[in-house]
# Entry
Amino acid sequence: MPAPGPSLTPASRVILGLYQGYNANACLLVDGEPTLIVENERHTRVRHAYGPSAECVEACLRGAGMTIGDVDRVGFCGASDLDTDYGYDIPAPAGDGSFFPALAGTRLLSTDCFRETPIRVLGRTLPGVIVEHHVAHAASAFYTSGFLQSLILAFDGLGDFGRSCLILRGSGTRIDCLESVPLRIGLAFKKAGTHLYRLGGTGFDAAGKLMALAALGEPRYLGAARLFLDHVDVSTGTREWLLPELGKLRQGALSDLDGNLARDFAASLQAVASAATLNLLRRHLRPGDRLCLAGGCALNVIINRDLLRELPLAALYIPPCPHDGGLGLGASLYLRNHIEGARRLGEGLDPYRGLTDLDGINPEALPSAWPPSGSRIGVAELERENQVVRAVQLLAQGEVVGWCHGRSEVGPRALGNRSLLADPARDWMASHLNRRVKHRESFRPYGLSLRAENLGRVFGTDAACSPYMMLAATMTGNWCQALPAVVHVDGSTRYHTVSQAANPLLWQLLAAFEAATGIPGLLNTSYNLPGEPIAESVADCLAVFSDAAINNLFIGRLHLSKG
# Structure
Protein backbone atom coordinates (compact mmCIF):
# COMPACT_ATOMS: atom_id res chain seq x y z
CA MET A 1 0.00 0.00 0.00
CA PRO A 2 1.57 3.37 -0.92
CA ALA A 3 1.87 6.02 1.72
CA PRO A 4 -0.48 8.98 1.44
CA GLY A 5 1.00 11.94 -0.33
CA PRO A 6 1.62 15.32 1.25
CA SER A 7 -1.47 17.28 2.21
CA LEU A 8 -2.45 20.18 -0.01
CA THR A 9 -4.16 22.05 2.82
CA PRO A 10 -2.74 25.38 3.96
CA ALA A 11 -0.19 25.34 6.76
CA SER A 12 -1.79 24.91 10.17
CA ARG A 13 -1.41 27.79 12.58
CA VAL A 14 -1.60 25.68 15.75
CA ILE A 15 -0.35 22.08 15.87
CA LEU A 16 -0.43 19.91 18.97
CA GLY A 17 2.34 17.30 19.12
CA LEU A 18 1.80 14.25 21.32
CA TYR A 19 3.82 11.27 22.46
CA GLN A 20 2.48 8.97 25.15
CA GLY A 21 5.21 6.36 25.57
CA TYR A 22 8.35 6.45 27.69
CA ASN A 23 9.02 10.13 28.59
CA ALA A 24 5.50 11.11 27.48
CA ASN A 25 5.20 14.72 26.35
CA ALA A 26 3.15 17.36 24.59
CA CYS A 27 4.31 20.20 22.35
CA LEU A 28 2.48 23.23 21.05
CA LEU A 29 3.61 24.56 17.68
CA VAL A 30 2.28 28.04 16.82
CA ASP A 31 3.01 29.36 13.32
CA GLY A 32 5.78 26.80 13.06
CA GLU A 33 7.53 27.82 16.29
CA PRO A 34 7.70 25.56 19.37
CA THR A 35 5.90 27.56 22.03
CA LEU A 36 5.73 25.03 24.86
CA ILE A 37 7.26 21.58 25.34
CA VAL A 38 5.98 19.80 28.43
CA GLU A 39 7.18 16.41 29.64
CA ASN A 40 4.66 14.48 31.71
CA GLU A 41 7.30 13.71 34.35
CA ARG A 42 7.47 17.36 35.31
CA HIS A 43 3.80 17.13 36.36
CA THR A 44 3.67 13.70 37.91
CA ARG A 45 7.14 13.98 39.49
CA VAL A 46 7.63 10.40 38.31
CA ARG A 47 10.84 10.13 36.33
CA HIS A 48 10.31 9.14 32.68
CA ALA A 49 6.51 9.07 33.21
CA TYR A 50 4.81 6.80 30.72
CA GLY A 51 1.29 6.96 29.33
CA PRO A 52 -1.46 9.44 28.54
CA SER A 53 -1.90 12.64 30.44
CA ALA A 54 -4.82 14.94 29.74
CA GLU A 55 -3.37 17.20 32.45
CA CYS A 56 -0.13 17.52 30.50
CA VAL A 57 -2.01 18.50 27.33
CA GLU A 58 -4.26 20.92 29.22
CA ALA A 59 -1.27 22.52 30.93
CA CYS A 60 0.47 22.94 27.58
CA LEU A 61 -2.58 24.69 26.09
CA ARG A 62 -3.22 26.76 29.21
CA GLY A 63 0.39 27.92 29.28
CA ALA A 64 -0.08 29.35 25.79
CA GLY A 65 -3.43 30.91 26.65
CA MET A 66 -5.27 28.48 24.38
CA THR A 67 -7.84 25.70 24.49
CA ILE A 68 -8.24 22.57 22.42
CA GLY A 69 -10.59 24.61 20.23
CA ASP A 70 -7.60 26.62 18.98
CA VAL A 71 -5.76 23.54 17.68
CA ASP A 72 -5.87 22.92 13.92
CA ARG A 73 -4.12 19.53 13.63
CA VAL A 74 -2.45 16.91 15.81
CA GLY A 75 0.90 15.23 15.23
CA PHE A 76 1.00 11.94 17.12
CA CYS A 77 4.13 9.80 17.49
CA GLY A 78 3.58 6.08 17.83
CA ALA A 79 3.08 4.26 14.54
CA SER A 80 3.24 0.77 16.00
CA ASP A 81 0.84 1.61 18.82
CA LEU A 82 -2.33 2.25 16.83
CA ASP A 83 -4.16 -0.49 18.68
CA THR A 84 -3.09 0.77 22.10
CA ASP A 85 -5.42 2.80 24.31
CA TYR A 86 -3.51 5.99 25.06
CA GLY A 87 -6.55 7.83 26.26
CA TYR A 88 -7.00 9.34 22.81
CA ASP A 89 -9.51 8.00 20.30
CA ILE A 90 -7.30 6.95 17.37
CA PRO A 91 -9.13 4.88 14.76
CA ALA A 92 -7.42 1.57 14.08
CA PRO A 93 -6.39 0.97 10.47
CA ALA A 94 -8.24 -1.54 8.38
CA GLY A 95 -6.90 -5.07 8.50
CA ASP A 96 -3.89 -5.85 10.63
CA GLY A 97 -3.77 -3.31 13.46
CA SER A 98 0.02 -3.51 13.66
CA PHE A 99 0.50 -2.57 10.01
CA PHE A 100 1.68 0.90 9.06
CA PRO A 101 1.57 1.85 5.40
CA ALA A 102 5.00 3.39 5.27
CA LEU A 103 7.00 0.88 7.24
CA ALA A 104 7.04 -2.81 8.07
CA GLY A 105 9.58 -4.66 10.17
CA THR A 106 13.04 -3.31 9.45
CA ARG A 107 12.45 -2.79 5.72
CA LEU A 108 11.50 0.62 4.37
CA LEU A 109 8.48 0.63 2.12
CA SER A 110 8.30 4.36 1.61
CA THR A 111 10.06 7.56 2.53
CA ASP A 112 6.82 9.15 3.73
CA CYS A 113 6.47 7.75 7.22
CA PHE A 114 3.07 8.94 8.33
CA ARG A 115 -0.62 8.10 8.32
CA GLU A 116 -3.37 10.71 8.22
CA THR A 117 -6.28 9.90 10.54
CA PRO A 118 -8.68 11.74 12.84
CA ILE A 119 -7.63 11.86 16.48
CA ARG A 120 -9.89 12.76 19.39
CA VAL A 121 -8.18 14.82 22.09
CA LEU A 122 -9.88 16.38 25.13
CA GLY A 123 -13.31 15.72 23.69
CA ARG A 124 -12.61 17.20 20.23
CA THR A 125 -11.99 15.25 17.02
CA LEU A 126 -9.15 16.81 15.03
CA PRO A 127 -7.38 15.98 11.77
CA GLY A 128 -4.29 14.10 12.80
CA VAL A 129 -1.10 12.56 11.51
CA ILE A 130 0.65 9.58 13.07
CA VAL A 131 4.43 9.76 12.60
CA GLU A 132 6.90 6.89 12.91
CA HIS A 133 9.09 7.02 16.04
CA HIS A 134 12.54 7.54 14.50
CA VAL A 135 11.21 9.89 11.84
CA ALA A 136 9.82 12.08 14.64
CA HIS A 137 13.26 11.97 16.28
CA ALA A 138 14.85 13.06 13.02
CA ALA A 139 12.34 15.87 12.56
CA SER A 140 13.01 17.24 16.07
CA ALA A 141 16.66 17.69 15.07
CA PHE A 142 16.61 18.67 11.40
CA TYR A 143 13.79 21.20 11.56
CA THR A 144 15.33 23.02 14.52
CA SER A 145 18.92 22.93 13.22
CA GLY A 146 18.63 25.75 10.72
CA PHE A 147 20.34 23.50 8.13
CA LEU A 148 18.89 23.54 4.63
CA GLN A 149 20.36 20.09 3.99
CA SER A 150 21.71 17.47 6.35
CA LEU A 151 22.37 13.80 6.95
CA ILE A 152 20.37 12.65 9.96
CA LEU A 153 20.98 9.76 12.34
CA ALA A 154 18.14 8.76 14.68
CA PHE A 155 19.24 6.02 17.08
CA ASP A 156 18.02 4.85 20.44
CA GLY A 157 17.03 1.78 22.42
CA LEU A 158 13.83 0.78 20.71
CA GLY A 159 11.10 2.45 18.65
CA ASP A 160 8.24 1.44 16.38
CA PHE A 161 8.27 -2.08 14.89
CA GLY A 162 11.33 -3.06 16.91
CA ARG A 163 13.43 -0.52 15.04
CA SER A 164 16.44 1.05 16.76
CA CYS A 165 18.30 3.07 14.11
CA LEU A 166 17.29 5.01 11.01
CA ILE A 167 19.48 6.97 8.57
CA LEU A 168 17.73 9.84 6.83
CA ARG A 169 18.50 12.92 4.78
CA GLY A 170 16.83 16.27 5.18
CA SER A 171 16.52 18.77 2.36
CA GLY A 172 14.37 21.88 2.54
CA THR A 173 11.05 20.80 3.98
CA ARG A 174 11.50 17.08 3.32
CA ILE A 175 13.00 14.24 5.26
CA ASP A 176 13.67 11.05 3.30
CA CYS A 177 14.59 7.70 4.81
CA LEU A 178 17.76 6.05 3.50
CA GLU A 179 18.34 2.93 5.58
CA SER A 180 17.01 1.09 8.62
CA VAL A 181 19.82 -0.58 10.57
CA PRO A 182 19.55 -3.06 13.46
CA LEU A 183 22.08 -1.12 15.52
CA ARG A 184 20.91 -1.44 19.13
CA ILE A 185 23.37 0.76 21.03
CA GLY A 186 20.77 2.15 23.43
CA LEU A 187 19.35 -1.27 24.19
CA ALA A 188 22.82 -2.75 24.70
CA PHE A 189 23.75 -0.04 27.18
CA LYS A 190 20.45 -0.42 29.01
CA LYS A 191 20.59 -4.22 29.20
CA ALA A 192 24.22 -4.24 30.25
CA GLY A 193 23.59 -1.53 32.85
CA THR A 194 20.50 -3.09 34.40
CA HIS A 195 21.16 -6.83 33.90
CA LEU A 196 24.91 -7.25 34.15
CA TYR A 197 25.86 -4.23 36.28
CA ARG A 198 22.64 -3.78 38.29
CA LEU A 199 22.97 -0.01 38.05
CA GLY A 200 20.03 1.72 39.68
CA GLY A 201 17.55 4.11 38.09
CA THR A 202 14.51 4.03 35.88
CA GLY A 203 14.37 2.86 32.27
CA PHE A 204 17.43 3.98 30.37
CA ASP A 205 19.09 5.76 33.33
CA ALA A 206 21.52 2.85 33.55
CA ALA A 207 22.75 3.61 30.02
CA GLY A 208 24.02 7.05 31.05
CA LYS A 209 25.69 5.65 34.15
CA LEU A 210 27.44 3.01 32.08
CA MET A 211 28.80 5.70 29.77
CA ALA A 212 30.35 7.42 32.80
CA LEU A 213 31.80 4.15 34.12
CA ALA A 214 33.40 3.39 30.75
CA ALA A 215 35.94 6.16 31.26
CA LEU A 216 37.44 4.26 34.20
CA GLY A 217 38.36 1.18 32.15
CA GLU A 218 40.36 0.06 29.14
CA PRO A 219 38.76 -1.47 26.00
CA ARG A 220 40.25 -4.95 26.51
CA TYR A 221 37.18 -6.96 25.48
CA LEU A 222 36.25 -5.61 22.08
CA GLY A 223 35.22 -9.01 20.70
CA ALA A 224 32.89 -9.67 23.61
CA ALA A 225 31.41 -6.17 23.43
CA ARG A 226 30.88 -6.46 19.67
CA LEU A 227 29.04 -9.77 20.08
CA PHE A 228 26.94 -8.35 22.91
CA LEU A 229 25.95 -5.33 20.81
CA ASP A 230 25.11 -7.46 17.79
CA HIS A 231 22.95 -9.95 19.67
CA VAL A 232 21.34 -8.10 22.56
CA ASP A 233 17.59 -8.63 22.45
CA VAL A 234 14.46 -7.05 23.86
CA SER A 235 13.90 -9.42 26.76
CA THR A 236 16.57 -10.61 29.17
CA GLY A 237 14.86 -12.43 32.00
CA THR A 238 17.50 -14.62 33.63
CA ARG A 239 19.45 -15.09 30.43
CA GLU A 240 23.18 -15.64 30.37
CA TRP A 241 25.48 -14.22 27.72
CA LEU A 242 28.28 -16.47 26.50
CA LEU A 243 30.94 -14.05 25.34
CA PRO A 244 34.46 -14.63 24.00
CA GLU A 245 37.19 -13.69 26.48
CA LEU A 246 34.65 -13.55 29.32
CA GLY A 247 32.70 -16.82 29.31
CA LYS A 248 29.20 -16.85 30.75
CA LEU A 249 27.99 -13.55 32.13
CA ARG A 250 25.05 -14.02 34.48
CA GLN A 251 22.78 -11.42 36.01
CA GLY A 252 24.83 -9.16 38.25
CA ALA A 253 28.13 -10.58 36.97
CA LEU A 254 29.61 -7.09 36.63
CA SER A 255 28.01 -5.49 39.69
CA ASP A 256 31.42 -4.96 41.34
CA LEU A 257 31.93 -1.56 39.80
CA ASP A 258 35.38 -1.22 41.34
CA GLY A 259 36.59 -4.35 39.54
CA ASN A 260 38.70 -4.16 36.39
CA LEU A 261 36.40 -6.53 34.50
CA ALA A 262 33.34 -4.32 35.01
CA ARG A 263 35.19 -1.17 34.03
CA ASP A 264 36.97 -2.72 31.05
CA PHE A 265 33.80 -4.24 29.60
CA ALA A 266 32.05 -0.85 29.91
CA ALA A 267 34.98 0.80 28.12
CA SER A 268 34.85 -1.90 25.45
CA LEU A 269 31.13 -1.45 24.87
CA GLN A 270 31.60 2.32 24.57
CA ALA A 271 34.44 1.86 22.06
CA VAL A 272 32.44 -0.62 19.98
CA ALA A 273 29.39 1.69 20.02
CA SER A 274 31.47 4.63 18.77
CA ALA A 275 33.11 2.52 16.07
CA ALA A 276 29.78 1.11 14.85
CA THR A 277 28.29 4.60 14.64
CA LEU A 278 31.29 5.91 12.73
CA ASN A 279 31.20 3.02 10.25
CA LEU A 280 27.49 3.49 9.64
CA LEU A 281 27.80 7.21 8.97
CA ARG A 282 30.79 6.80 6.67
CA ARG A 283 28.54 4.82 4.29
CA HIS A 284 26.26 7.81 3.79
CA LEU A 285 28.34 10.95 4.35
CA ARG A 286 28.98 13.28 1.46
CA PRO A 287 31.79 15.87 1.29
CA GLY A 288 30.82 18.94 3.30
CA ASP A 289 27.84 17.24 4.96
CA ARG A 290 26.17 18.57 8.04
CA LEU A 291 24.92 16.00 10.52
CA CYS A 292 21.90 16.01 12.84
CA LEU A 293 21.68 13.50 15.69
CA ALA A 294 18.55 12.49 17.57
CA GLY A 295 17.29 9.64 19.73
CA GLY A 296 18.44 8.67 23.20
CA CYS A 297 21.90 7.67 21.95
CA ALA A 298 22.53 11.29 20.97
CA LEU A 299 22.94 11.90 24.73
CA ASN A 300 26.14 9.84 24.63
CA VAL A 301 28.71 12.65 24.65
CA ILE A 302 31.59 10.24 23.97
CA ILE A 303 30.04 9.07 20.69
CA ASN A 304 29.37 12.71 19.82
CA ARG A 305 32.98 13.63 20.60
CA ASP A 306 34.27 10.78 18.44
CA LEU A 307 32.08 11.81 15.50
CA LEU A 308 33.51 15.32 15.60
CA ARG A 309 37.06 13.97 15.83
CA GLU A 310 36.84 11.35 13.09
CA LEU A 311 34.35 12.60 10.49
CA PRO A 312 34.79 15.50 8.05
CA LEU A 313 31.64 17.28 9.21
CA ALA A 314 30.78 20.83 8.25
CA ALA A 315 28.62 21.04 11.38
CA LEU A 316 26.98 18.84 14.00
CA TYR A 317 23.62 19.61 15.61
CA ILE A 318 21.87 17.88 18.50
CA PRO A 319 18.68 19.39 19.95
CA PRO A 320 18.27 19.82 23.74
CA CYS A 321 15.65 17.05 23.82
CA PRO A 322 16.96 14.35 21.46
CA HIS A 323 15.44 11.60 23.65
CA ASP A 324 11.82 10.47 23.66
CA GLY A 325 10.92 13.67 25.51
CA GLY A 326 11.26 15.45 22.15
CA LEU A 327 8.96 13.19 20.13
CA GLY A 328 5.89 15.42 20.45
CA LEU A 329 8.04 18.24 19.09
CA GLY A 330 9.26 16.02 16.26
CA ALA A 331 5.78 14.82 15.26
CA SER A 332 4.45 18.39 15.12
CA LEU A 333 7.45 19.65 13.12
CA TYR A 334 7.19 16.76 10.66
CA LEU A 335 3.54 17.62 10.09
CA ARG A 336 4.28 21.31 9.61
CA ASN A 337 7.35 20.93 7.42
CA HIS A 338 7.36 17.62 5.55
CA ILE A 339 3.61 17.21 5.12
CA GLU A 340 2.38 20.80 4.89
CA GLY A 341 5.56 22.10 3.26
CA ALA A 342 5.92 25.15 5.51
CA ARG A 343 9.61 25.43 6.35
CA ARG A 344 10.68 26.56 9.80
CA LEU A 345 13.47 29.08 9.30
CA GLY A 346 14.82 29.38 12.84
CA GLU A 347 18.38 28.36 13.67
CA GLY A 348 18.59 26.24 16.79
CA LEU A 349 15.89 25.67 19.38
CA ASP A 350 15.32 27.95 22.33
CA PRO A 351 15.63 25.34 25.11
CA TYR A 352 13.71 27.40 27.66
CA ARG A 353 10.30 26.27 26.48
CA GLY A 354 9.15 24.58 29.66
CA LEU A 355 5.87 25.38 31.36
CA THR A 356 6.68 27.37 34.48
CA ASP A 357 8.17 30.88 34.45
CA LEU A 358 9.79 31.77 37.78
CA ASP A 359 10.96 35.29 36.94
CA GLY A 360 8.11 37.01 38.78
CA ILE A 361 8.37 35.00 41.98
CA ASN A 362 8.35 37.29 45.04
CA PRO A 363 7.56 36.71 48.73
CA GLU A 364 3.81 36.88 48.03
CA ALA A 365 4.12 34.02 45.53
CA LEU A 366 5.45 31.61 48.15
CA PRO A 367 3.04 29.12 49.73
CA SER A 368 1.35 30.40 52.88
CA ALA A 369 3.09 27.72 54.95
CA TRP A 370 6.50 28.78 53.74
CA PRO A 371 8.95 28.90 55.42
CA PRO A 372 7.92 25.89 57.50
CA SER A 373 7.22 26.61 61.14
CA GLY A 374 10.35 26.41 63.26
CA SER A 375 12.71 26.50 60.32
CA ARG A 376 15.55 29.00 60.11
CA ILE A 377 15.16 30.04 56.49
CA GLY A 378 15.73 33.63 55.47
CA VAL A 379 13.78 35.16 52.60
CA ALA A 380 15.20 38.24 50.90
CA GLU A 381 13.93 39.98 47.78
CA LEU A 382 16.81 41.07 45.56
CA GLU A 383 17.09 42.69 42.16
CA ARG A 384 18.89 40.61 39.55
CA GLU A 385 22.12 42.56 39.82
CA ASN A 386 22.20 42.05 43.58
CA GLN A 387 21.39 38.35 43.16
CA VAL A 388 24.39 37.99 40.89
CA VAL A 389 26.65 39.80 43.38
CA ARG A 390 25.46 37.66 46.31
CA ALA A 391 25.64 34.41 44.34
CA VAL A 392 29.22 35.14 43.26
CA GLN A 393 30.20 35.76 46.89
CA LEU A 394 28.73 32.43 47.97
CA LEU A 395 30.17 30.45 45.05
CA ALA A 396 33.62 31.94 45.68
CA GLN A 397 33.35 30.69 49.27
CA GLY A 398 32.73 27.12 48.10
CA GLU A 399 28.95 27.08 48.53
CA VAL A 400 26.65 25.11 46.22
CA VAL A 401 23.73 27.32 45.16
CA GLY A 402 20.39 26.58 43.55
CA TRP A 403 19.76 28.81 40.54
CA CYS A 404 16.13 28.74 39.35
CA HIS A 405 14.91 31.45 37.00
CA GLY A 406 12.71 31.94 33.98
CA ARG A 407 11.07 29.08 32.14
CA SER A 408 12.45 25.60 32.64
CA GLU A 409 14.78 24.04 30.10
CA VAL A 410 13.51 21.09 28.06
CA GLY A 411 15.38 17.82 27.94
CA PRO A 412 17.50 16.03 30.52
CA ARG A 413 20.41 18.48 30.82
CA ALA A 414 20.40 21.47 33.17
CA LEU A 415 21.05 24.62 31.16
CA GLY A 416 21.04 27.26 33.85
CA ASN A 417 17.37 27.82 34.64
CA ARG A 418 16.94 24.84 37.00
CA SER A 419 20.54 24.27 38.06
CA LEU A 420 22.83 23.59 40.98
CA LEU A 421 25.99 25.67 40.51
CA ALA A 422 29.38 25.40 42.18
CA ASP A 423 33.03 26.41 41.88
CA PRO A 424 34.77 23.95 39.51
CA ALA A 425 38.23 24.83 40.85
CA ARG A 426 37.73 22.98 44.14
CA ASP A 427 39.10 19.46 43.91
CA TRP A 428 36.65 18.14 46.51
CA MET A 429 33.51 19.56 44.94
CA ALA A 430 32.54 16.63 42.67
CA SER A 431 32.91 14.15 45.52
CA HIS A 432 30.91 16.42 47.84
CA LEU A 433 28.09 16.75 45.34
CA ASN A 434 27.94 13.00 44.69
CA ARG A 435 28.01 12.03 48.39
CA ARG A 436 26.08 14.81 50.12
CA VAL A 437 23.86 16.58 47.59
CA LYS A 438 23.05 14.41 44.55
CA HIS A 439 23.49 11.03 46.33
CA ARG A 440 24.74 9.25 43.27
CA GLU A 441 27.59 6.98 42.20
CA SER A 442 31.08 8.27 42.92
CA PHE A 443 32.31 7.84 39.34
CA ARG A 444 29.74 10.12 37.73
CA PRO A 445 31.13 13.43 36.45
CA TYR A 446 29.75 16.98 36.26
CA GLY A 447 29.48 19.46 33.43
CA LEU A 448 30.93 22.92 32.94
CA SER A 449 28.95 26.01 31.90
CA LEU A 450 31.06 28.76 30.37
CA ARG A 451 30.45 31.86 28.31
CA ALA A 452 30.70 31.23 24.58
CA GLU A 453 33.47 33.85 24.46
CA ASN A 454 35.67 31.55 26.56
CA LEU A 455 35.23 28.41 24.46
CA GLY A 456 38.44 28.76 22.43
CA ARG A 457 40.51 29.80 25.45
CA VAL A 458 39.46 26.79 27.52
CA PHE A 459 38.91 24.05 24.89
CA GLY A 460 40.93 25.23 21.91
CA THR A 461 40.06 27.09 18.74
CA ASP A 462 38.64 24.00 17.04
CA ALA A 463 36.10 23.26 19.76
CA ALA A 464 32.45 23.24 18.70
CA CYS A 465 29.77 25.24 20.46
CA SER A 466 27.66 23.15 22.79
CA PRO A 467 24.59 25.22 23.74
CA TYR A 468 22.70 22.19 25.09
CA MET A 469 25.59 20.38 26.89
CA MET A 470 25.71 17.56 24.33
CA LEU A 471 29.47 17.49 23.72
CA ALA A 472 32.59 16.50 25.63
CA ALA A 473 36.13 17.62 24.95
CA THR A 474 39.53 17.93 26.64
CA MET A 475 40.47 21.31 28.05
CA THR A 476 43.70 22.91 26.83
CA GLY A 477 46.72 24.13 28.74
CA ASN A 478 46.47 23.97 32.51
CA TRP A 479 42.69 24.13 32.71
CA CYS A 480 42.35 20.42 33.54
CA GLN A 481 44.45 21.01 36.65
CA ALA A 482 42.75 24.32 37.40
CA LEU A 483 39.16 23.01 37.14
CA PRO A 484 39.34 19.46 38.62
CA ALA A 485 35.68 19.24 39.67
CA VAL A 486 34.49 19.06 36.05
CA VAL A 487 37.21 16.78 34.63
CA HIS A 488 36.31 13.11 34.24
CA VAL A 489 38.92 10.41 34.83
CA ASP A 490 39.61 10.18 31.07
CA GLY A 491 40.44 13.89 30.98
CA SER A 492 37.21 14.90 29.21
CA THR A 493 34.71 17.54 30.26
CA ARG A 494 31.07 17.76 29.22
CA TYR A 495 30.50 21.44 28.53
CA HIS A 496 27.75 24.00 27.96
CA THR A 497 28.44 27.20 26.01
CA VAL A 498 26.29 30.13 27.11
CA SER A 499 25.64 33.11 24.85
CA GLN A 500 24.39 36.41 26.18
CA ALA A 501 21.40 36.22 23.86
CA ALA A 502 20.40 32.68 24.91
CA ASN A 503 20.54 33.18 28.68
CA PRO A 504 21.49 36.74 29.69
CA LEU A 505 21.20 36.14 33.45
CA LEU A 506 23.42 33.05 33.51
CA TRP A 507 25.86 34.78 31.17
CA GLN A 508 25.99 37.72 33.58
CA LEU A 509 26.62 35.41 36.53
CA LEU A 510 29.43 33.62 34.68
CA ALA A 511 31.03 36.95 33.73
CA ALA A 512 30.82 38.25 37.31
CA PHE A 513 32.24 35.01 38.74
CA GLU A 514 35.17 35.16 36.33
CA ALA A 515 35.81 38.82 37.15
CA ALA A 516 35.90 37.98 40.87
CA THR A 517 37.88 34.73 40.73
CA GLY A 518 39.54 34.38 37.33
CA ILE A 519 37.67 31.09 36.82
CA PRO A 520 36.00 31.00 33.36
CA GLY A 521 32.99 28.83 34.20
CA LEU A 522 30.83 27.11 36.79
CA LEU A 523 30.05 23.49 37.56
CA ASN A 524 26.43 22.95 36.48
CA THR A 525 24.16 20.03 37.35
CA SER A 526 20.42 19.54 37.45
CA TYR A 527 18.34 20.95 40.28
CA ASN A 528 16.46 17.91 41.57
CA LEU A 529 16.34 15.32 44.31
CA PRO A 530 17.70 11.79 43.75
CA GLY A 531 15.45 9.76 41.47
CA GLU A 532 13.24 12.72 40.57
CA PRO A 533 12.89 14.80 37.41
CA ILE A 534 14.32 18.30 37.20
CA ALA A 535 12.30 20.74 39.29
CA GLU A 536 9.58 22.58 37.40
CA SER A 537 7.29 24.60 39.67
CA VAL A 538 7.84 26.82 42.68
CA ALA A 539 6.72 23.94 44.91
CA ASP A 540 9.25 21.61 43.28
CA CYS A 541 12.07 24.10 43.78
CA LEU A 542 11.17 24.62 47.44
CA ALA A 543 10.98 20.85 48.04
CA VAL A 544 14.49 20.37 46.65
CA PHE A 545 15.79 23.25 48.78
CA SER A 546 14.20 21.84 51.93
CA ASP A 547 15.64 18.35 51.51
CA ALA A 548 18.95 18.90 49.73
CA ALA A 549 22.22 19.65 51.50
CA ILE A 550 22.45 23.17 50.12
CA ASN A 551 22.12 26.44 52.00
CA ASN A 552 21.16 28.91 49.29
CA LEU A 553 18.53 29.11 46.58
CA PHE A 554 18.03 31.96 44.14
CA ILE A 555 14.53 31.68 42.70
CA GLY A 556 12.84 34.39 40.69
CA ARG A 557 13.38 37.61 42.65
CA LEU A 558 14.20 35.82 45.92
CA HIS A 559 17.23 34.60 47.80
CA LEU A 560 16.39 31.85 50.28
CA SER A 561 19.04 30.91 52.82
CA LYS A 562 19.34 28.34 55.61
CA GLY A 563 21.16 29.18 58.83
Notes: Residues 1-8, 82-109 have pLDDT under 50 and may be disordered. The first strand starts at residue 14 and ends at 19. The chain is about 30% helix and 20% strand.
